[in-house]
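Hello,

Following up on my earlier ticket. Below are the two sequence lines again, exactly as submitted.
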Amino acid sequence: MKHNIKNMAHSLPATALALIMATLPARAQGLDTAIDGFFAATTTWFVNIIFSNFPGTSFPWIVAWLVAGATVFTLYFGFIQFRAFRHSIHLVRGDYSDPNDAGEVSHFQALTTALSGTVGLGNIAGVAVAVSIGGPGATFWMILAGLLGMASKFTECTLGVKYRNEYADGTVSGGPMYYMVKGFRERGLPGGKIMAVLFAIFCILGSFGGGNMFQANQAHAMITTVVPFYPGWITGVVMATIVFLVIVGGLKSIARVTEKVVPFMAAIYVGTALIIIGMNYDMIGSAFRQIFVGAFTNDGVVGGMIGALIQGFRRAAFSNEAGVGSAAIAHSAVRTKEPASEGFVSLLEPFIDTVVICTMTALVIIITGQLVSDPATGLFVLNEAGTQIQTVTGNSGVALTSDAFSSAFGWFRYVLVLAVVLFAFSTMISWSYYGLKAWTFLFGEGQTKELIFKLLFCFFVIIGAASSLSAVIDFSDAAIFAMAVVNILALYLLMPIVKAEMNSYLARLKSGEIRRYN
Amino acid sequence: MTRKIVVGYDGSETARRALDFAMARAKAEGNSIVIAHVLEWSPYSFLTPSEIEERHRRRTEELQRAETAILAPVVAQVEQAGIPVATVLRYGHIAETMARIAKEEDAAMLIIGRMGHSGFAARIFGSVAATLAQASPVPVVIVP
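Thanks for your patience. The regenerated structure is below:
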């Protein structure tokens, strides 16, 4: 495996460069295919391991792993996501923030920054994939996975803060790598270091995959819905250049603009979805009926009820990243005295991301009637290949979401393009940070080492935009889920520590020792 | 009875005139001066992950710079003039924080310099002086 990776790292840039030189610009479409083929050939084995089914079933073990984790944490912490929900909102509002700490990162800022890493294509494109394959019933399982995932987030972010490294210059580094090493040592468990290294490797791959190529790929797919017939590498080069300017050139102004526009875009997105749902208020009942019925019966979708469940769980996990460990990296940078308080804040993320935003996308697709069903039987009709439900326009992924929204407001097509590109961009910036943290954990900090990672990151933006959907989406999912394999195992072993933190915090909250300022 | 005069000071020309005005008043009436410097900060702004990581260090640097470059030189001058002086250094919304400081210090009055913004910008973003004139818990003097 080591040999493989080395070879890949050697030949990948060289091959791609040679390809670019040889084929510019006349055979640009051919280049897309070439990159995709090369990409599929080098990553298929990895994807196959992650998405293998339980023997004799069509149920991927990784989905069971994530949901089992989220369920265990939910039960172990006594439904903390519901018990602490109100307190979490008070924390984000700043009710418990000491005025003397003004000028430090607030809970609100920690939450929005972590959210800008997760709110993105998973909410727009991923949900469309889930609903078009798993039917409306997938939405039910997606919401359930989102609610359970809140407990996973709570667990990992509490640990992230508790075991971060604080340096003399006032900066902090944290994340699963650090709680694996330090937490395992504290509990006298073996293997912390090995797990941390594995996690860091997967995190780097994930930052190239779901945090980068998937984003670039879908951003390009989205742009081609308004500007058809132009090759992916152009989008790739443009996006890579802007990412380069931000992460290498330190052009903070671009990042800052994005950070300001993204929440605004999210508000427009949810607002428009609500308006479309409101305009079709007579359909709301039937939409929810489809969601509930589809969740427990076979409504004609691929794989029946289990198919809906798999798609719902899988897309929820990909969208909110609960259990993946990425949020633990983001939250551990926040200056706070109480690890548990950061856990409480973070449990709002899967709620906002999945329970609110993803559900909006699903409802709009269902309510605007994008999925074709047989009027005689009431069952959904599959497309010719039998891989997903036939849609009105024959589109899937992000294009399906675009069809659904623009069936109500034609102009929304263009707003959505802008939203997708900005979401993709902010997710890339966040993941470049997560990947870099994993990279410096493995190789140490240093200007040259960090520059190598950043250049590689920009390179994968181009690959992602040029590659066709199938190869990229599979690898993106696989890399991110591989992080969850290692991370959730560590969370199981460290959850007693989180419980002690949580109980101590809640006791002090009750006694008034943790006081409210506003 | 000595009372406190709170002066908003940011190192600018007009802030300097406000401080001179405050010193003259304090001397005449035997009051003491509290020099207040507020660093603009909103807990609801948006930051990138690397900004979050660096925030604590930045904050320490900002406080240090404010202390040494802005407050320290004028504190020495006020002391030399024989007026008792204290300083307050805070993060927050400038006008709101100034009002809070005036209240906490139980100030006799609050003296600030005029910002010099007029018309459009002030209309959009609001001005510190106008907000304080409306919201201050103690009498406000705005020095041009």
